[in-house]
Design brief:
Length: 221
């Protein structure tokens, strides 16, 4: 319980909860682990509740009836998310899928506890809706990229973002993994990377890509 409460203090509304509310939340929060590649939340499953990332990375995406995936955003250490609590936030009218890209550890606040806090504490309620709005903005940005940006621009943007996030010019990902991230096909990514390589922007290796010309990649962005 102490372990859970320590992590829950990361939430900005925690100090505004009464001792009774804090105890209720802690009793209704579970620590869960998901191995790499496992489904954390899937369309049609029961409402998961609010999650708080402790370790690892989760990819949040939409899945069409034909099996096409559209990556929306990622959750990493310290990130909370309520898109898995659509039964609580009625304005969330779409179902997301969540898959663990690494071995993940997270806290799950049950849907009932999220609903209780939203009804009884204005600070918690504001946080839930602000977080939902923030995530929805990320969804709209992803959809905007897919609809209005060329594949080469999306790929260059992704490579630059990964460089900024990891601090290394070597992106250790396969063509298939990159295709999932930018919501494209593996064959298209392979073709674009071959063009980037010919232009001297990257060096393509088995299972990784080395960025050679950051200025040139940024120009494509």
């Amino acid at each position: 319980m102490e372990h859970i409460e320590t992590h829950m203090q990361m939430l900005p509304f925690w100090k505004q909860l009464t001792e009774e509310e804090k105890g209720y939340v802690v009793r209704n929060t579970m620590a869960q682990r998901f191995p790499k590649g496992s489904i954390v939340h899937s369309r049609g499953n029961d409402c998961l509740g609010m999650i708080l990332m402790l370790k690892g990375t989760i990819r949040v995406y939409l899945l069409s009836e034909e099996g096409r995936e559209v990556t929306l955003f990622h959750l990493r250490e310290g990130d909370p998310c309520v898109l898995s609590a659509a039964c609580v936030v009625e304005q969330l009218a779409f179902d997301t899928q969540m898959v663990a890209e690494d071995d993940c550890e997270l806290l799950v606040v049950t849907a009932g506890a999220v609903s209780y806090l939203s009804e009884h504490n204005i600070y918690a309620r504001c946080f839930v809706y602000e977080l939902a709005t923030e995530r929805f903005s990320a969804v709209m940005w992803s959809m905007q990229q897919i609809l209005f940006m060329r594949v080469d621009s999306r790929l260059a943007t992704f490579l630059i973002d990964e460089y900024a996030r990891t601090g290394t010019p070597v992106i250790k990902m396969t063509h298939e993994q990159i295709a999932q991230q930018i919501s494209s096909a593996r064959e298209v990514v392979a073709r674009m990377l071959k063009r980037f390589s010919t232009d001297g922007l990257v060096e393509v290796r088995r299972g990784s890509i080395r960025l050679l010309d950051l200025k040139g990649l940024r120009a494509l962005c």
